[in-house]
Description:
There is one protein chain. This protein is an alpha+beta fold. It has 3 helices and 8 strands, in the order E-E-H-E-E-E-E-E-H-E-H. Strands 3-6-7-8 form a 4-stranded mixed sheet. A two-stranded antiparallel ribbon has the order 1-2. A two-stranded antiparallel sheet has the order 4-5. The model has no long low-confidence stretch (mean pLDDT 94).
Amino acid sequence: MSYKGKYQPSYPKKYKGDPTNIIYRSLWERKFMVYCDKNENILEWGSEEIIVPYRSPLDNRYHRYFPDFYIKVKESTGKIKKMIIEIKPFKQCIEPKVQKRKTKGYIYEVVEYAKNQAKWKAAEEWCLDHGYEFKVLTENELGIK
């Protein structure tokens, strides 16, 4: 089941962007928003505030990818790190197994996987160019079952 809504931060000054218009598209995203908002080691954060151009393998044209989160975190060593975070179900992070019957569901999974791989490759390159780190978090990393 998909959950959508608006998040109101407890610490709006930490949010980079419009703190009155923070949209979550899943409870996993909302959980990460709460974590970013309340964790004192997250110095600033944003949701879908960065644009990464990527070439789609479907039409070979450039599109805009808005990663789920940007965070600036203070590590235990005192070092400041900037990261781009994407929240996805683990199922969407593994390549679909080839099936004999090409059902609509199977085709959708293959298309989404190909698009995600192109987006994530572009995000990794963008992060390398800008001194960021890119991570995809699933329900496993978020502690959700």
